[in-house]
Amino acid sequence: MIQTSISYQPFTQQRIADFQKRETPFYFYDMALLDNTLAALRRSSSKHDFTVHYALKANVNEELLRKIKAAGLGADCVSGNEIRQALACGFSGKDVVFAGVGKSDREIRFGLEHDIYCFNCESLQELTVLQELAAEMNKTARVALRVNPNIDAKTHRYITTGLRDNKFGINPRDFEKIASLLQDSPNLVLRGLHFHIGSQVTDIDVYAGLCERVNDLQQWFTDRGIDLPDLNLGGGLGINYKEPDRYPIADFESYFSTIAQHLKRLPGQHVHFELGRSIVGQCGSLISRALYIKEGVETTFAVLDAGMTELIRPALYQSHHYIENLSSDLPEQTYDIVGPICESSDCFGRDVQLAEIRRGDLIAIRSAGAYGQVMASRYNLRDLAESVYGKRENLVTNEK
User: Fold this and answer.
1) C-alpha radius of gyration, the chain, whole number
2) pLDDT tens for residues 301-340?
3) What is the pTM of this model?
4) What is the reported pLDDT for 156?
5) Which CATH number fits domain 31-280: 3.40.50.20, 1.10.245.10, 3.40.190.170, 3.20.20.10?
6) Are 201 and 240 in contact (CB under 8 A)?
């Protein structure tokens, strides 16, 4: 598990008292923790002169994006609207890299219009389409080749992206065709190679193995005199979902030092990363209320007013989130923590030990800053939850 020994306690009595006055469910973002996380990230990455782009797919909340931009990070986008959101929050086109296996013509044109830094391309056909569109617009597109390294990230199969049977990336067997295509594409400029093997990676040895594979793959290009000024190693660094207070900040130090130790960096080569979850995951919590305590035949259900519409990860990935009762110090009991959605998969946790829950108690589902609000839906025609921001005791509500 990648983690640090820094401890943190986000919920004071004053915050809980303020929560009691608010309509639930809502997302609470601890901006002080985000500041501390960004500072730790910059300290560790700057030692090696690494460039970090924030992966907007983790969370596109405007307040978070503006703070991330102010910290000097770039923007990693996987859709045209993510590019649009990054630009609206202060990022320039030169801050943006655009990834994704299915970029539409409209999205590509939008990226070209704003002269984004790089298109991370995933197939021969995508490069052909990009050349055609760039020529039509009299633009030049900087490209990186997303290579599938066939590396097992040892994470959930839904969020593994670097294996041979995943849909992502270019197979190295196509390098000869790619090189020939680039020679015949005057509107494309090769910047380098791009890799991304998955998300919520907690085994640091995976990154050592990735570097060894990257070293071998980029040698193919250098042997042929092809310049690679940029190398993008993606992201995927995991967080500790089980103990968010004990380990609130990901171990950026071990992550970046492992890369620096094992990567054979070419002279003058810029190394880029795309981190999302590890930046915003721990600063967000989903705050809910208990609606009903329902006694089943063998199970006691705590029914919350938040559901899979506010945090789909447990239903989609069977993922674990630490859950706590903010309103009670009574002896613990065992509950299935479920939501109100008309789906049996709408469950945040089974056999969860919590201080006795009573109707109206505030329940916090932690580590919801990444892939929570950004994946929210209006299924069952539910309202979208508001966002509340805190820095120590000062809270501000973002009205919809």
Assistant:
1) 22
2) 999 999 999 999 999 999 999 999 999 999 999 999 999 9
3) 0.92
4) 39
5) 3.20.20.10
6) no
